Amino acid sequence: MPTRFLTTATPYLFLFIISHVSATNYYVATSYGSDTNNGTSLGTPFKTIGKAASVMSSGDICYIRQGRYHETITISNLDGSSGSAIVFTNYGSERVVEASGKEQARQSTSKHAQARE
Q1: 102 near 115, Cβ under 8 Å?
Q2: Is residue 1 part of a domain?
Q3: Which helix H or strand E contains 113, and what residues bound it?
Q4: Is residue 36 part of a domain?
Q5: I need a surface site. Which of 29, 49, 104, 117 has the fewest CB within 10 A?
C-alpha cells in the first residue's frame, strides 16, 4: 500500500514544489539600488518599488528596505491569485516611509496584491 500512495501522490507533490519554486523574492533599496539590477537579492536590489511592481507576478514577494520612497506605484497590472497573492512588505523590522511621511501603505488597490506590515 505505501508504494501505491507514493506513486499516486508524486505528481501532486511535484506540482506543489514547482508552484512554489516559480515564485520570486524581489528587493528594493532606495539608498543603494538600481532599476537596472535584477532585484533578486539584497546585493542587487531595485531602486524603486515601481520597478519591482513592473516585473512581479503571482506568488512573488517584494521586500522593501528602509528609506523614504518618493513615488506613486501602480499595481493595477498585477494579477495574483487568491492562493498566491503578490506581496509588498518591509524588509525585517526596517521602516519604510512614503514621500508624504506616512508609514508604508497597509491597503492594496489590487484584488490579489497585498501590503504587509
Answers
A1: no
A2: no
A3: strand 113-116
A4: yes
A5: 117
- Nine-digit cell at 12? 501532486
The answer to whether residues 53 and 27 touch, using CB atoms and an 8 Å cutoff, is: no
Parent domain of 71? 23-116
pLDDT values of the chain reduced to their tens digit, one per residue, 117 residues: 454 544 444 444 444 444 445 789 999 999 999 999 999 999 999 999 999 999 998 889 999 999 988 888 777 656 666 677 888 899 999 988 876 544 444 434 344 455 554
Classify residue 108: in a domain, yes or no: yes
Report the number of distinct structural domains present in the chain. Answer: 1
Residue 7 lies in a domain: no
* CB-CB contact of 19 with 59 (8 Å): yes
**CA dihedral of residues 79, 42, 40, 14 (deg, nearest 10):** -90
Closest CA to 105 of 97, 54, 1: 97
Is residue 23 within 8 Å of 84, Cβ to Cβ? yes
